[in-house]
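Hi there,

I know you've been waiting on this one. I reran it after we fixed the sequence typo, so this is the corrected version. Both the input and the resulting structure follow.
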Amino acid sequence: MRTTNPNFEFPKATFTEPTPYGYIYAGMIVDPPGRTPFVRGSSKRNDALARSKTVARRLEELDEVIKATVYRAVLIPPIEGMPRFDVIVLVQTTSPETISEVQTSEPYERLDADFVMAARNTRRIGDTEEPLSGSFLFNHFTAEDPEGAVEVWESFTGWYTAKIGVDNSTLLQPIGEAPYAFINYVRLPRGPIRFMLDQVARPSFYSFVRSNLSENGMGALPLFCEPI
């Protein structure tokens, strides 16, 4: 992996110690939008969210679980290969080693997820869940070289903190096989539309961020959510 057109004006962000937790990212395809990226109200999704909240509460009763948060998608960009999860449950376990215990529990079996990725946090900026409100981004990165892709992502962090005002990021790297090199979990400084406009309005987004993704065979699939 290599960074082309390096932007020396924006050095890497300051990283904090990764969390010691394990993570279970569970995505459900319930009633995603058709051609529009905006996720409209749906009684079917509301039912799924209510069921997921019940399961999340049951999961939080386990000794191995710290927190289980349910998210509903608010915007799913029409990008090729984009995951269509309109309900997401993110489970934090006491450690990566306790993930398997949670996954064999009775509450977990009730999740009925379409996609599951066990992960650990390997890079972190600030605290993504303080506060646990507002808009959140789950950015699914694909890469020809998953390990090298983290270095490329690191090179962008200073651009996002300086230009877009992002002050947090929790990088979730998969444990075992997964279609994604990592998922970047971020609390956004503003809503999804403004966040995307702030990026595309800047020439350096194309010359620096997008060009390096392309040069290194990487793709970014952003899914925007709100916690419930």
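Quick highlight: Strands lie at 22-28, 65-75, 87-93, 115-125, 136-143, 169-174, 182-187, 218-227.

Best,
R. S.
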